[in-house]
Amino acid sequence: MLIALTISYLMMHFGSDSSALMWPYDQIAKSIKQDVSDEVRQKQALEILDQMKAADKASAKQREKSAKVLTKLEAVRETPFAAIEYAGQPLVADDRATSERLLDLRFQLKSVLTASEWSKLFPVQATAAEAKKSL
Prior knowledge:
- The chain is 83% helix and 0% strand.
- It contains 6 helices and no strands.
């Protein structure tokens, strides 16, 4: 119970977004190879996608380490909440940094692709934009 409350508090208080940005990288790479005909832009897009995947993996490893530290602290009933909060701050800071990095890379990826290529790669977003226009 304490673990759930602490994690909830940290996430609500500091926010957490990077996990929401995780993409199916292999599927997107396949689509880029299929839908982007210009080899130079295709190579750029795949390199950006590789950077995104690497950032996600590094963040996941760091998140796992931080979660282990938090779990150990929370296992001791007498651990002050301030100590748990302090131990959770690197987790939140890394999550924010990863979110910003992934967002920057997403904009780089979008700038490499044409509008039609982007909509082929991410049809849900294109459909949402079309629905918004129809309102």
